[in-house]
Amino acid sequence: MDLLEFYGLKEDPFKLTPDPLYFYPSGSHNEALLSLNYVIEQKEGFCLITGEPGTGKTTLLNVLLGRWRDNAEIALILTPRLSPEEFLISVLEDLNLKLKDKTKNDMLKAFRDFLIEKSLGGRRVLIIVDEAQDLPDETLEELRLLSNLETTKEKLLQIILIGQPELEKRLRADNLKQLNQRITIRVRLSPLTITETPDYINYRLVKAGKGFLRLDEKSMKPIHNFSKGIPRIINLLSSRALMSAYLEGSNLVTLRHVHYAMSHLSDSTIDNRKRLYKIIYGFTAIILLTIVGVVVYNYLPIHRDQQSALKQVQGRNQTQTQTQTPEPPVSNIEPSSTAPLTGSPVKQQPTPPSPVLRYVVVKTSAANIRAEPRIDADKIRLAYKGERLARSGDYKSIDATGRKWYKLMVDKDRVGWIADSVVILKE
Ligand SMILES: Nc1ncnc2c1ncn2[C@@H]1O[C@H](COP(=O)(O)OP(=O)(O)OP(=O)(O)O)[C@@H](O)[C@H]1O
Ligand SMILES: [Mg+2]
Asked: pTM higher than 0.90, yes or no?
C-alpha cells in the first residue's frame, strides 16, 4: 500500500508545484492578489511584486492568470534572460502577433495598433514577467519604453514584474531610476506568520483529501521556526515528516518525525539558491586549485627525480611478485552467501583493507540502520533512497541467516549497521 492509499489522500498534499488549486490566501498573499487585481482593473501602469524564493510568487501568478486569462490579452514571460529584441518578439508572439523578420519599428507600430484596437474593444493588455530579477538592464529599459505607450486618456498596457528582492535593489540604481519611478504599486510577499503556518498545513491537507492523517499540534511551532514561514520549506519538511510517519505505519505525524525531517533538510535540500551558488563556486575553486596544484607538483624537477626512482623500485617489486600467489581482487571482500547459520548474532571479520570502497548508497525507498548486524536489533534511524552513508573502516558481518551487513558511521561517535541487500557500494 503506498503513502496516499495508507492515509486516504487523493494526492500529495505537499507537492512543490505552484498549483493555484492549493493557494492559501495568507494576509500577505491576499494583499498582493488584491493589489494585482486593482492594477489590472484600474489600468494602473506598472506593478512590482517581490518575495524571497519559495514564498509563493509563481503560485500567486497562477491564481491571477486563472482570474484574467479569458478576460485580457496576456503576454507571459517566464524565462526573461532575453535581449530587448528577443523580449519584444516573445511578447508579440504571446499575443499572437506574427511579426518575425520585421524591423523593430514595424514591430512597435503593429504593437501600438494592437493596443489601441484592444483598448477600443474594452480589453486589457498585460505583460507579466516572472523571475524578473533575471531581466538584463537593457531589457528593463525596453519595458519602460513600452510602458510609454498610452493615449491622452489612459494607459494602453499594464506591466507586472514578479521577482526576488534583489530586483528592488537593482531598480534603485541610477540607470534604472526612470523605470523605478513608473512603478505605481509595490507589494512584498512575506513568509507566513506563526498562526498562518498551521492553518496553511491543514489547508493543504484538506485540499488533498486529508483522510486519516493528523499532525501533532506540538510539531507546528518547530516547523514554523525551521522554515521561517516559507511555504516551500514547510512543504519539504512536512513531506519528509509524513514519509517518516508512513514508514512507521503511524497516522499521527509527531514532533519526532518532524525532527527527523529537519535533520535531513538542514544542510542539503532547502531551496536556497544563494547557498547553492556559493557551494558550486566553492567547489569549482577547489577543483581548479587542485588541478593547478597537481600540474605544478608534477613539473617540479625534484618531484620528477622522485618519480623515476619510484618507478625503478616498482619494476623490481613486480618481478618479485610474479612468482608469488596473486592478491584477491577488491570485489572479493563480499562474504560467501553460504556462511554458517550458527553463531548468532555474528562474527565480525575485518576485510582486507580496501582503499576504494568507502560508502554505501541506499537503493530502496527507505532502509533501517540498526544498532547490531541483525534484523531484530534496535533501529537507530531510517535512511532514504539515494542517501550516502560513510562506512566505518572495512568491517562487515554475516548474520545467522547469511545476510551481510555493513558497519557505518551514523554520527561522530556512533556506529550502526545496514543490510547489504538495501545498498550499493560506492567509492
Ligand atoms: N499561498 C500559498 N498557498 C499554497 N501554496 C503555496 C503558497 N505559497 C507558496 N506555496 C507553495 O510553496 C511552493 C513554492 O511556491 P512558488 O513556486 O510559488 O514560490 P516562488 O516565490 O515563485 O519561488 P521562486 O522564487 O523560487 O520562484 C509551492 O509548492 C507552492 O505550492
Ligand atoms: Mg517562482
From this structure: no
